[in-house]
Amino acid sequence: LGSGCRMLENREEELTTVRVQDPRVQNEGSWNSYVDYKIFLHTNSKAFTAKTSCVRRWYREFVWLRRQLQKNAGLVPVPELPGKSTFFVGSTDEFIEKRRQGLQQFLEKVVQNVVLLSDSRLHLFLQSQLSVPEIETCVQGQGSQTVTEAILHYAMSNCGWVQ
Questions:
Q1: Chain centroid offset of residue 90 CA
Q2: Does residue 127 contact residue 154 with C-beta atoms inside 8 Å?
Q3: Which residue ranges form the domains of the chain, and what is each CATH number?
Q4: Of 73, 50, 46, 78, nearest to 62 (Cα)?
Q5: Per-residue model confidence as pLDDT tens digits over 6-25
Q6: CA–CA separation, 159 vs 163, rounded Å?
Q7: Is this model's pTM higher than 0.85 or not?
Q8: How far apart are CA 140 and CA 24, in angstroms?
């Protein structure tokens, strides 16, 4: 029994930190304005190709990701996204902050789920700046790069690394 316990102690615990930060309003004042968020990921998990990455995504891309995860997860429940409220009482800043918190909670739950973590769309969403159509093309093997190559290419371009 003793040696088994020691083996567990020596095994490094896998940790994944995901932060949704720095909401920025794009095209402010126009009818097609939107907010994008910086997603910072730091991990020692073998599930991830890059150990640190930083990308910007907007709410509509989160909606797409959740839909894809749901399609592929079978009976595994996919966490909810914060609502898309058009009738929000309070300031825009308050709404953006509540949404930011909701998106972070969504991603924290997703990266803790082994089934969801096996979806390559999630990895491209978190660790590349590919657009949604480009992610689909890559996952279907029709792009010029594999999923791993796309993530490594982004990581090596220094865009994905936090300076």
A1: 28
A2: yes
A3: 16-161 (3.30.1520.10)
A4: 78
A5: 444 445 688 889 999 999 88
A6: 9
A7: no
A8: 31
